[in-house]
């Protein structure tokens, strides 16, 4: 079994994708490592990210030096199918989009089996413990 890339997509030199993974409409900057059986869709990785096995990262921005433990992911649609809201200057703003994952800032670590609710920002140097549903 191999991995699959559906374009448009850009995978920078030094990046690595394990078997069974699907990369679609995404950008993986330098030294990004995607584990086996992951789905990466419509996302940007700034570089040096380490994504473990069985992760689903959709419609998200992932900073530099970010680590995701296995079985984690970014949800990108609300159950209500309403537009996603995003916190700007302490106030929730309508993004005008009904698909939006998360912004995970530089040097953050996401534990195993973490679910990040749509439209959330993970601040720099954040550690989210395994099994957390991140709603902040």
User: Which structural class matches the secondary elements?
Assistant: mainly beta
* Count, helices: 0
DSSP strand (E) fraction?
Answer: 35-45%
Low-confidence stretches: none
Rg result: 14 Å
What overall geometry do the principal axes of the alpha carbons give? globular
Q: Percent of residues in helical segments?
A: under 10%
Top-tier CATH class: Mainly Beta
Distance N to C terminus: 38 Å
Number of strands: 21
The CATH topology corresponds to UDP N-Acetylglucosamine Acyltransferase, domain 1
* Order of strands, widest sheet: 1-4-7-10-13-18-21
CATH architecture: 3 Solenoid
Description:
The protein has 136 residues and is mainly beta. The chain has one domain (4-134): 3 Solenoid (UDP N-Acetylglucosamine Acyltransferase, domain 1), CATH 2.160.10. The protein is 0% helix and 38% strand. The protein is built from no helices and 21 strands. Strands 1-4-7-10-13-18-21 form a seven-stranded parallel beta sheet, with no helix packed on it. Strands 2-5-8-11-16-19 form a six-stranded parallel beta sheet, with no helix packed on it. It has a six-stranded parallel beta sheet with strand order 3-6-9-12-17-20, with no helix packed on it. β14 and β15 form a beta hairpin. The chain is globular. The N and C termini lie far apart (38 Å). The mean pLDDT is 96.
Label this structure with key terms.
136 residues, mainly beta, UDP N-Acetylglucosamine Acyltransferase, domain 1, 7-stranded parallel sheet
Write the layout of secondary structure elements.
Layout: E1 4-6, E2 10-11, E3 16-17, E4 22-24, E5 27-28, E6 33-34, E7 39-41, E8 44-45, E9 50-51, E10 56-58, E11 61-62, E12 67-68, E13 73-74, E14 85-88, E15 91-94, E16 102-104, E17 109-110, E18 115-116, E19 120-122, E20 127-128, E21 133-134
């Amino acid at each position: 079994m191999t991995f699959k890339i559906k374009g448009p997509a850009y995978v920078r030199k030094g990046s690595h994708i394990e078997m069974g993974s699907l990369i679609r409409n995404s950008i993986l900057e330098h030294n990004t490592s995607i584990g086996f059986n992951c789905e990466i869709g419509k996302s940007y990785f700034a570089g040096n990210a380490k994504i473990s096995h069985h992760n689903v990262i959709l419609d998200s921005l992932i900073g530099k030096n970010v680590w995701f433990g296995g079985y984690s992911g970014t949800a990108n649609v609300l159950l209500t199918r309403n537009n996603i809201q995003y916190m700007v200057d302490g106030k929730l703003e309508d993004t005008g989009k009904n698909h939006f994952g998360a912004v995970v800032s530089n040097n953050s670590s996401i534990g195993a089996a973490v679910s990040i609710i749509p439209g959330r920002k993970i601040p720099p140097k954040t550690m989210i413990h395994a099994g957390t549903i991140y709603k902040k």
